[in-house]
Write a structure and sequence with these properties.
Oligomer: single chain
Order of helices and strands: EEEEHEH
Helix content: 10-25%
Strand order of the largest sheet: 1-2-3-4-5
Structural class: alpha+beta
Strand content: 15-25%
Distance between the termini: 41 Å
Number of helices: 2
Largest sheet: 5 strands, antiparallel
């Protein structure tokens, strides 16, 4: 995954990287047996039970997001640009900032990452 950081015209530091979704899920729920010859085995046959812990399906990306996007993050704001410009890894910081201005701002829930253990965080909140 290519990665860049740059400082915009206001002095804000931005991290930039590309997100390219995988083409297919490694394991499909087709139920199709892939083995040519099934031999009896002397222990419990685990193939009858799915090995996945969750049964949820992955979200299907549609439109231009299916081809991937460029992610801009400064620790406070996050933006996504699609499609990914071919020259983003080598372009000037001015052009990278122009890409940022054309990117969509991400809104909604953000995952908070902390170096404190969960016990320390709860102790701080009283």
């Amino acid at each position: 995954m290519p990665y860049r950081s740059f400082e915009d015209s206001t002095g804000e530091e931005w991290q930039v990287w590309d997100i390219v979704p995988q083409l297919t899920e490694r394991r499909e729920e087709s139920g199709r047996e892939r083995r040519v010859h099934n031999a009896p085995i002397p222990f419990a046959d685990r193939r009858a039970q799915p090995r996945r812990l969750t049964t949820s399906r992955r979200a299907v990306l549609s439109g231009s997001y299916a081809q991937g996007w460029l992610c801009f993050d400064n620790g406070k704001d996050k933006h996504r640009l699609t499609p990914i410009p071919d020259d983003w890894t080598t372009c000037s910081e001015e052009l990278l900032e122009a890409y940022l201005r054309h990117a969509d701002r991400v809104t909604g829930a953000h995952r908070v990452i902390s170096d404190q253990s969960s016990d320390e965080r709860f102790a701080d909140t009283g």
